[in-house]
Design a protein that fits this description.
26 strands, nine-stranded mixed beta sheet, Rossmann fold, alpha/beta, GMP Synthetase, Chain A, domain 3, globular, 3 domains
């Protein structure tokens, strides 16, 4: 397994989401695009049928509507959710994917802020729709996803009469396709405007950088920009099959059922899967054997003999038996897990993105990667570091076809994040001599001591999590020049771990420069509050105060 640069993969240069669907239907025809279970029966939808459903639903949805409108969609992962998205955007309208974990009040605020006039919802959220209907939201039309098939049939009848309407509308690459409201760890949500071209550029660049072979399971929620772009759109361009997981509670059984080759995950899932591998091995009394086998496998790998898929077959079987690739994005991933999975024969490619960049900016490649980095910038954009310090660390800025149109009805916020064509991400990092991007942390999280020393808390947090497996979550901040590590411990798998925390931190401090040493430990009784995308809300300390 060589780790060296090589040419991009050849990819169809689609310019918008309508071209994406047209290309896939023409090239992949009757190959399965989506597979899911409904009432314990497996359903498969071909690429050709998917396009026909998109067109028919587009006609059925909008035959009574006049002019361009914004359509909100909310619900668990489903074929109807995906179908609704493409039917909206490919008929010249705008989609507003709503986070299903938001409160009714938050959903109402986003609907009003966006100007949405149609709400498509799954049956599980019919109570939410009822409350919104009673609460004078400016929604003119409520559509339960149970009605989608009826609307598809209606669209088919209308088209038979010669009225194709929205099906033949021309999509301008720069036209607004999706409105995504951020759920950042600090600050107020802003409406990110992404054009057809933004999304298409990102999808094409992803396929040029990473080789996707075989099926995947859609585990990330569809309102998550990484989950939708990578887990749906990239798979469509590659002609691969997407198996739809509708609930996290079915995740492990769906892995065994659908036997995916690829997974697109956030770090929390990667870490959880890896820890479960070792917890299961320990429970079975096989953890020492697994360590020995990894040692032997690593030695053989150095002389060109790869036995990982054979040695660790039982581990891979827990993921269905076919899993070869995990692409992780949405938050930093400790390289410990990347190396750990690679030793077991599963390649983990860490990437970096932000909603405002549609969302992926960089990713490691199948055979060209650098552990600890988030890969090289996509071919559709440029990445630069602004005002680097003496170590080369500075704010990451991005320019290119994947960068958003701006924030919806918020010109001031838009101007604040742009310097000419360059989008200022608010993240801090550096580029090595080969163009690999390394993330140091968030600019707003930076700790600046009175002696002028800069500390990126994420760096210390990674060290704690890597060195101390009993720590489940940690947030580092400063109190009066003292570095504080606030922790939530994994007491279930590591009973009595609280007794060794002080000595463990003392050992860890020996590898840090004095100014980075942890001077105070806070043990939490509960997990940290999180956003709906499972990122810790850093503005909370032990008392709930801002940190």
């Amino acid at each position: 397994m060589r780790n060296k640069n090589y040419p991009f993969y050849v990819t169809e240069p689609v310019r918008n989401l309508k071209e994406l669907i047209d290309f896939a239907a023409e090239k992949y025809g009757d190959m399965p695009a989506f597979t899911y279970e409904r009432k314990k029966e497996r359903v498969s939808v071909s690429y050709r049928q998917f396009k026909l459903d998109i067109e028919a639903l587009g006609v059925g949805l909008f035959h009574e509507c006049s002019g361009r409108c914004t359509v909100a969609v909310i619900g668990e992962n489903s074929y109807e959710w995906i179908l609704s998205y493409f039917s909206v955007v490919n008929s010249g309208n705008v989609i507003l994917p709503l986070d299903k974990d938001l409160s009714v009040a938050e959903i109402k605020n986003l609907l009003n802020a966006s100007g949405a006039v149609v709400l498509v919802f799954s049956d599980d959220y019919s109570d939410v729709a009822d409350r919104l209907c009673e609460d004078a939201v400016n929604i003119r039309r409520y559509i339960n996803m149970n009605q989608v098939r009826e609307l598809v049939n209606l669209g088919v009848e209308i088209m038979r009469d010669g009225s194709r309407g929205v099906v033949d509308c021309e999509i301008v690459d720069g036209s607004l396709a999706a409105l995504l409201y951020t759920s950042g760890t600090t600050g107020t949500s802003k409406g990110v405007m992404l054009s057809h071209g933004n999304l298409a550029n990102n999808v094409v660049a992803a396929c040029r950088n990473v080789d996707i072979l075989g099926s995947n399971i859609l585990l990330l929620p569809l309102h998550h920009s990484f989950g939708f772009v990578a887990g749906v759109c990239v798979m469509i361009l590659k002609g691969s099959e997407t198996c739809i997981n509708s609930s996290f509670k079915n995740m492990l059984s769906d892995l065994l059922k659908f036997k995916p080759y690829n997974l697109f995950l956030v770090p929390l899932f990667v870490e959880t899967f890896y820890k479960k591998i070792w917890a299961d091995a320990k429970k079975q009394g096989k953890d020492k054997l697994l360590k020995r086998m990894i040692g032997i496998s690593n030695m053989l790998l150095k002389i060109g003999i790869d036995v990982r898929r054979l040695f660790f077959k039982s581990v891979i079987e827990a993921f269905g038996g076919n899993l070869k690739l995990i692409v992780s994005g949405g938050a930093p991933l400790d390289p410990f897990y990347v190396k750990g999975f690679r030793e077991l024969g599963i390649n983990v490619l860490n990437g970096y993105g932000i909603t405002e960049c549609s969302p992926i900016v960089s990713v490691n490649r199948n055979r060209y990667y650098r552990d600890g980095s988030v890969g090289q910038g996509y071919s559709c954009c440029e990445v630069k570091i602004v005002e680097p310090d003496e170590h080369g660390h500075g704010e990451i800025c991005v320019k290119g076809g994947n960068v958003m149109m701006g924030y919806y009805k918020n010109e001031q916020a838009t101007q604040e994040v742009f310097e000419g064509e360059w989008f200022k991400t608010g993240d801090v990092g550096y580029l090595d001599r080969d163009g690999f991007l390394f993330i140091s942390g968030r600019k707003k999280n930076l700790i600046i001591l009175s002696n002028g020393k800069n500390i990126y808390p994420e760096e210390i947090e990674f060290a704690v999590l890597n060195y101390m497996p009993c720590v489940k979550e940690v947030v580092v901040y400063a109190e009066s020049e003292v570095i504080v590590a606030e922790m939530f411990l994994d007491a279930e798998n590591y009973p009595g771990c609280a007794l060794t925390i002080n000595s463990d931190i003392l050992q860890l401090n020996r590898v840090f420069p004095l100014y980075k040493s942890i001077g105070k430990i806070v043990i939490r009784d509960t997990e940290f509050p999180k956003t709906t995308t499972k990122k810790i809300k850093r503005r909370y300390g032990s008392s709930g105060d801002a940190v």
